[in-house]
Amino acid sequence: MGFTALAAAALLALPAAAQALPEDRTYEMVSPPDKNDGDVGAGLFGGQAYAGTAGDRIVYMSLGGWDAPTNSITGVYAAERGDEFWTSKSTLLPTLPFASIGGAAITGISPDASRVLSGTNRNPDTGEPAQNGDNGMIFLLDPTTGERELVLPDLDVNGDPVSGFPLEFTGNSDFSRLFMQANAPLTEDAVGLPGSGGAIYLFEEGEHTLQSVLPNGDAYKVQLPTPGSSGLVPNVTSEDADVLFFQVTFGVGDPDPRGVYRRDFSGATPQTVRINEPETEDDPGGGPTGSFSGASSDGTTAYFTSNQRLVDEDENSLTDLYQYDHSKPAGQRLTLISEDGEPADDDAAVTRVHTVSEDGSTVVFSSPSQLVEGEPIDAGRKLYVARDGEIEFVGITGPNTNQGDVSAEGVALAADGSQMALVTSAALTAHDNGGFDQVYVRDNDTGEVECASCRAGAANTAPAAFRTTGALNMFGAGWTGAIRNLSSEGHVFFETLESLLPQDTNGKKDVYIWQDGELDLISTGRSTDHSQFASATPDGKDVFFVTRERLSGWDFDGRLDLYTARVGGGLPEPPAPVEECTGDDCQGPPPLPPAYPGAGSGHYDGPGNPQADPVDCTPAERKANRLANKAQQASKKAKRLKKQARKASGKKAKRLNKRAKKAQRQAKAKRKQARQARSQLALCREEAEL
Prior knowledge:
4-stranded antiparallel beta sheet, globular
């Protein structure tokens, strides 16, 4: 079969599921058709990708390079959506051979995915080896234009080699304001700093300024909080980067400088305060160490753990969880979150803080202690959610050993704290999960829990899983909320080998979406190979996944490709062949969208087959859209009522919750009707094309 005929076959072979995705989603091929026999992903490292917040950009890895620099194993590309197709550009700068396998790396990606931090051991201006050897240099790179700024030189201000890459980068949406921790002095005032770790610098408008400054004005070596055994660290900087949190873990001098700090850049001059400052007249005991656990996106509310007794309500020296509210007067900013409301059992420490909501109202944490009246005593590791300071018991998630059953990255939380999704083998509902990890969704307004990945009427035979931030280990440390398994609109994305829907027939790993009790496939369930969730936008309107199945007419090679299932999406398919051909008459491949910028056409102006009276699908389309809009309105009404109920109390709260549940049922019914209408619309469109 010639390439032209192959393109036609690809167009005709597009799966029906492409026309029956939930929420009027449409498949778009993100990676380029010609990948030089490479695959999206990174082999044994798995596919790693990060979607920009707007959904029009994504950074992803490949096994092998596509006519672009690699780190000898993988390539890293930034894809941008255009009017006709997605265009991919390399984010790796040219390098010299490394002493070890790999080497060149992306050490950070801006939240909007417009710029990356790209490392190289070769000076891109001179072509000469970096003076610091394989430690190299790091540039802030715009993949679209190729413009770059030197962020980390290979020599410090003393002319000495920089000792390794920074431990972490963080900043605002496009990294125009970028904070970095480096183990070498990059400015004159950073030479000879006391303390342990590195100094924190602000890189803005091409210049570094030292920002690891304590409340008394002294510069010090500090640490940017990074993920570890205590869990994720959301919002080390505020969304606009006007607030930065850091820690001092090694103290020299009197007073002891150890603690958790908040540095504010919104005024004329930056101001630093220690947020774990005691607010009790009693001796707090211990040292002033603390561990930053997360903050609201505006930097006003923060959470941290400490074994000091910082308020009068804290009656022990165990590790407790505290909330800091900068909007309150100094001396009245701390609230003990992990207060023991049922002291019948022995006191126990907070063992892990999982995540914090974007608005700062909600925090999820684990402890073996009994903090809520009526729950089991000494039964294992308990999962709690605290909203506006009120603790609720979620469930026993595992034995009281090490870190417990729920991993640090196994919990996702809605921006307003109203919903959470978690992965655990503990059966949190009546469904038989087979003893495997499954995905559970909790309504934090009502306390109701549903199993999103449980089989209806039968025990599970395989686990379900989130993609976690560990999948981004090649893109730098400190990533929070990067995979977005739970969207702001209540979409829950997960992977499983389990066939949860009749159309999932391949026995392979597939990507599912759950929303308000309804389950759908994102991958088709018919690929001959596993499909993998890659990333999603915060609102869930773009969900990216890797599959070997050909879901676009541009996809002709059977390699692993990156796709998005996009709400309101749809890009032009390749032009259909004008006529059939055989043998030597079939020359060359169909026109392909380039891996790099270039002209392309997605239109076909040739003659078509004679048509009977056209089939009018307008009424079916209007019906589907009308039902989808009604479902969306009912869902928004339910969320609004639940939020009102949370602020109310007594009978009013019960009444509002009852109305919210009714609205949820209406939304679910309308979504079902909308799905049926979309199926009818798909059939109509198929008939119209015949």
